[in-house]
Design a protein that fits this description.
Layout: E1 2-7, E2 11-17, E3 23-29, H1 38-48, E4 60-65, H2 71-84, E5 89-94, H3 95-104, E6 109-114, E7 118-123, E8 128-130, H4 136-139, H5 145-157, H6 163-173, H7 177-185, H8 190-195, H9 198-203, H10 208-224, E9 237-240, H11 242-246, H12 248-257, E10 262-266, H13 270-282
Parallel strand pairs: 1-4, 4-5, 6-9, 9-10
Antiparallel strand pairs: 1-2, 2-3, 6-7, 7-8
Length: 284
């Protein structure tokens, strides 16, 4: 049996494929090595794996995760996976490669992620060939859930939200300044915390304020990141992630405004990613 996983900063979606090709999905939290240690990954997996899953029965694990870039980050995740799935061959890669393989298969093109964070690349049909650094949620990640969440929190704390939305925000979350700053600066996973507020923009998207917030975020995403790729207009814009999918209409408009046609926009890459790996097995 093999496991294939798409790991974001907030959530990991897993697919178990048995000897008959039957697929079973389940979820755990995300394992971004910038925010969690090997020991934390081991503890989380042992707590959240389905009770019916026998880790020693797994022969291969293909894990793609956020911020799995440097050898140290790869080792943080791979060591945790290997400890839990002790009989498996563990292969760890970047979630951007997962996005490219899910969106493009073995065809070259452009792929992006718009979820808790953002990332993008040019892909040659096998590997990533060019990447404009999104700089993470502190300095960049334009268009992401974290970027939207930070904008909402800033306007809320500064009293710059429309009054009706401010009241709704307060009623929805019940958070004051001190509680928000404590979560941001003293608690783990601040990126998840700020990204969680993107749902507010989605739930209240009929408000002009939210429409403008999202449109400006996507405009900056293209201006600061996508337009920096060589001959970017020659490619279709393909994207995975909850933020890109939930706001796909305005994302399509932003792409068109910057001269880029839209190809495939999906919420989760896992189904296409599993198909990619199963095809790989069939083709030897």
């Amino acid at each position: 049996m093999i496991l294939i996983a798409d790991g974001g900063s907030t959530k990991t979606t897993w697919c178990l494929v048995d000897a008959h090709g039957t697929r079973s999905l389940f979820h755990t939290e995300g394992y971004n090595p910038e925010f969690i240690s090997t020991a934390g990954i081991i503890a989380s997996l042992r707590q959240h794996l389905p009770a019916t899953l026998a880790p020693k029965a797994i022969t291969e694990v293909h894990y793609y995760g956020a911020s799995v870039v440097t050898p140290e980050q790869v080792a943080t995740v791979a060591d945790g996976m290997q400890e839990v799935f002790s009989q498996a061959r563990v292969v760890v890669g970047h979630d951007l490669l997962a996005a490219a393989r899910a969106l493009l298969g073995r065809q070259p093109g452009f792929a992006a992620i718009l979820g808790t964070g953002t990332n993008s690349c040019l892909y040659d049909g096998e590997q990533i060939t060019h990447n404009v650094d999104s700089l993470g949620y502190f300095l960049g990640d334009e268009g992401s859930g974290a970027f939207l969440g930070k904008a909402l929190l800033r306007d809320y704390l500064r009293g710059q939200m429309p009054a009706e939305l401010e009241a709704s925000f307060r009623a929805t979350y019940g958070l004051g300044r001190d509680a928000i700053l404590d979560r941001l600066y003293n608690q783990p996973f601040p990126n998840r915390f700020v990204a969680s507020f993107a749902k507010f923009a989605s739930d209240h998207y009929q408000a002009p304020y939210c429409q403008q917030l999202v449109a400006e975020a996507f405009d900056l995403f293209f201006k600061n990141i996508i337009c920096k790729y060589p001959a970017y207009e020659a490619h279709t814009f393909n994207c995975v992630g909850s933020v890109g999918y939930n706001f796909r209409e305005v994302l399509t408009q932003a792409a068109a405004a910057h001269g880029m046609a839209v190809g495939k926009i999906i919420s989760l890459p896992i189904d296409d990613l599993v198909s990619y790996h199963l095809d790989e097995y069939k083709n030897g």
